[in-house]
Amino acid sequence: MSIGRIPGKGREDCGEVSEADPESAILRRLEIEELEERLLVVHRKEKRHLLWMVLGISPAATLPFLGLLVQGKIGLLFLLSALVAVSQAYSWTRASREAERLEKIHRELMEES
Q1: Is 3 a residue whose pLDDT tops 50?
Q2: Rounded to the nearest 10 degrees, how much is the dihedral formed by the CA atoms of 17, 18, 20, 23?
Q3: DSSP 8-state class, residue 60
Q4: pLDDT the model gives residue 25
Q5: In whole angstroms, what is the distance from residue 101 CA to residue 104 CA?
Q6: Fewer CB within 10 Å, N side or C side of the chain?
Q7: Is the Cβ–Cβ distance between 14 and 6 less than 8 Å?
Q8: Top mean-pLDDT range of 15-19, 60-64, 108-112
Q9: What does the alpha-carbon distance between residue 65 and residue 83 come to, in Å, rounded to a whole number?
Q10: How far, in Å, CA of 23 to CA of 108, rounded?
Q11: Helical residues (DSSP H) of 1-113, grouped into ranges
């Protein structure tokens, strides 16, 4: 349940925010601020996954990468890099979709305000 919503009621049942009701205006502003913070976090996550996808290495794959490098197993090193790129592409796609969803909600809230 998000801030400013009445339990059991949908978005359409909450009514419009009026200037006469300062509490609902404050709740609306808090909800928008919370959404903006979440959007910043998701954008940072999106950038991280994109970087790891392009590099072909992520923090979780650093030790296996170093182990394969020391052992001289170049073929497995390339395989590890390809698997990291694929998994990070998937994570980047998920983060991008969540960012788009949050941006859409943010636009709707800003239009209602």
Answers
A1: no
A2: 10
A3: G
A4: 83
A5: 5
A6: N
A7: yes
A8: 60-64
A9: 12
A10: 20
A11: 22-55, 62-71, 74-112
3-class SS of residue 82: helix
Residue with tokens 């400013």: 4
Rounded to two decimals, what is the model's pTM? 0.70
Give 59's DSSP letter: G
Classify each residue of 24-41 as buried b or exposed e, where b means 16 or more C-beta atoms within 10 Å of its C-beta. eeebbeebbeebeeebee
Q: What per-residue confidence (pLDDT) applies to 35?
A: 93
Domain ranges for the chain: 19-112
Asked if 39 and 103 count as a contact pair (C-beta separation under 8 A), the reply is yes
Give pLDDT, residue 111.
Answer: 87
Neighbours of 14 (CB within 10 A): 15
Q: What percentage of the chain exceeds 70 in pLDDT?
A: 82
Q: State residue 1's pLDDT score.
A: 39
Q: Which amino acid appears at position 80 of this protein?
A: L
pLDDT at 28: 87
Could you tell me the two tokens for 12? 């359409």
